[in-house]
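Worked Example 4.2. Consider the chain below.
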Amino acid sequence: MNQTVDIKELNERIRLESAFVDLIQMEMNKVIIGQKHLVESLLIGLLSNGHILLEGVPGLAKTLAISTLAQTIKAHFSRIQFTPDLLPADLLGTLIYSQKKEEFIVKKGPIFANFVLADEINRAPAKVQSALLEAMQERQITLGSETYKLDEPFLVLATQNPIEQEGTYPLPEAQVDRFMLKSVISYPKKDEEQLIIRENLAQNFPTVNEILKAEDILKARSVVKEVYMDEKIEKYIIDIVFATRFPSDYKLDKFNDMINYGGSPRASINLAMAAKAFAFIKRRGYVIPEDVRAIAHDVLRHRIGLTYEAEAENITSEEIISEILNTIEVP
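Applying the procedure from the previous section yields the following structure tokens:
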């Protein structure tokens, strides 16, 4: 009984605390037509302190969505266009010798921001991508012998184009795993595209208002962690992740030769955290199985390694995740 009362109170508090979510969505909808999934993915990353990888063909407003989100929050935003000739120093900064002071001084790079847009991340060579790893995982940068903490909130929002192969470097598994979500962005619907044309041909392009401070995001993150998750939901998450590792234990023998490796414990953590953030966006104080199912594809699609047999049979990680979700019993 006490637990029920607590959940009622928690639900009411989270309903009040999450009011700003609607405001952010309203501001973003001024500029971004449709793409509800894209906006929700960005909000989940923002609220659960997770980096996001957006994949889609050019022209689907990936970059615009990220910069629009940054405009709604009073925080430092920087954009890095990744190219094959980019160097780690272009990202992190460098040490410059000052003759006046007779010492090395730090010239900080664009990574020292709250929101970092890594545009076309798969165009940069491995050296640059590995320079991002420390920033993404440890939220710090090492220049020379000194280590510098990055400001909170710190979020890497990366985009990549899946259709182009020339001049691209596939992201290493270790780095892809650092992204909490990998969202695949699809084309807009006909009526949405009509609105997009109108908006872009209008005299004035819509502008968004600043509605939050960086501190508000940090406060919201601590509230998201308070969202109630039942033990049954935790077990459901573990079953989903374990099914990617040991499919035969879940009567999915057909995937034994298809999966090279499954999700790591980071997948379980991110699935639970993203489910809490999704419940928060829906202004609920507790997680339901539908929250887990809604974000499972984005959390897991880049964490399942496929074998040559799977590629030969055109089996994708999307199909494997869908099959797992349809097989595992919902609590």
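The chain is about 45% helix and 15% strand. The CA atoms of residues 122 and 169 lie 5 Å apart. Compare this with Example 4.1 before moving on.
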